[in-house]
Amino acid sequence: MLIYTCRESGLTRRLFSTLRHNTPTPRQTPPPSPNKRNLEDLTPSDLCYYWDTKAPNAGQLAFADKLFIPSRHSPIKLWSASKFRTTPLSSIEPEVAFLGRSNVGKSSLLNAIMGQEICWTSSKPGRTREMNAFGIGGTKGGESKIVLLDMPGYGKASRSEWGMEIMKYLQGRKQLRRAFILIDSEHGIKQKDADILKLFRRYAIPHQIILSKIDKVLAKKKKQTKTGVSDVSIQRLRGMLQDLKPVIQPDPYVSEGPGALGEILTCSADVEVSPGRALGVDAIRWSILSAAGIDGSLEESRLAGS
Ligand SMILES: Nc1nc2c(ncn2[C@@H]2O[C@H](COP(=O)(O)OP(=O)(O)OP(=O)(O)O)[C@@H](O)[C@H]2O)c(=O)[nH]1
Ligand SMILES: [Mg+2]
């Protein structure tokens, strides 16, 4: 009993002394770092890389955002197809397709672009198993202005016939204006991506690169981006974009065909800049409209003439 009491009192003493040393001083909120920038203040020129094209201005971004505002007639699911020969051929609306390795974030990005959870997403690769077409900008009784295609991913957990079916589709589809190829910013270009890029050049299919999940480059943890991002991480992103340029636009003397568009976009479908607006999505919307030839210039010239 005596031994027990002595031990207990020794333990208690040690515990109190540890507590005394570890008692936290009242927490003070660190002053905001002068080098951090709010997500809302980042422009497409900060996040993307435009060398053959011009970064969209505020008016163009607003025009694109307006066309994607969800309504009763937009977005709408138009069709799903697992085989090229089952895709409807009669449609005339301009189409853009979203491709990339499984799990790169295609369906999540499309949900962010369309402002609605209309595509299935999953943390497991191989979720999207068919081509899914969505119409945007439709009105009552009117056709959609543009069609977005969510494609099954290639690579891990993809179907073995992926390459054949999708390349057949991309080559044969007259309505296709551009294919957006997503590259995971955390993993960079993998062999499978390089193979696909080569095929796009060989068949001269117009394509553009989007770097996805850039929250992983901008911060260690996604929630840290809420307090803004540092200049250092923006510079890191810029470095990645510059390194990608010669890979996606190889030397014409060694390349089999035309490279990607000289404009790399970035996004983080999981990070909101403001309620309902994901990081980088406005610039992607503008590029979709540019690819489809809907750039608002008609509206602008009409306004100027009136
Ligand atoms: N950190 C982070 N995770 C993301 C982002 N976008 C998507 N994800 C996550 O990545 C996983 C895959 O997303 P999906 O959109 O289903 O990817 P997918 O490319 O359509 O995948 P498949 O249909 O399987 O080819 C999900 O767990 C998403 O939550 C992002 O911007 N940042
Ligand atoms: Mg998917």
UniProtKB/TrEMBL annotation:
**Gene Ontology terms, MF aspect:** GTP binding; metal ion binding
What keywords are assigned to this protein? GTP-binding, Magnesium, Metal-binding, Nucleotide-binding
Residues of the region (Disordered) are 19-41
Work out whether the entry's keyword set contains Membrane: no
Q: Which InterPro entries match?
A: EngB_GTPase, G_ENGB_dom, GTP-bd, GTP-bd_ribosome_bio_YsxC, P-loop_NTPase, Small_GTP-bd
EngB-type G domain residues: 92-294
| Cofactor or coenzyme needed | Mg(2+)
Highest taxon above the source species: Eukaryota
> Which Gene3D superfamilies does the record match to this protein?
P-loop containing nucleotide triphosphate hydrolases
Q: Which residues form the signal peptide?
A: none
Annotated GO CC locations: mitochondrion
The protein's matches in PROSITE patterns, at most eight in alphabetical order, are given as:
G_ENGB (PS51706)
What the entry lists under Pfam families is as follows:
MMR_HSR1
Q: Which residues cross the membrane?
A: none
What family is this protein classified in? Belongs to the TRAFAC class TrmE-Era-EngA-EngB-Septin-like GTPase superfamily. EngB GTPase family.
Q: What is this protein called?
A: GTP-binding protein 8
Species this chain originates from: Penicillium steckii
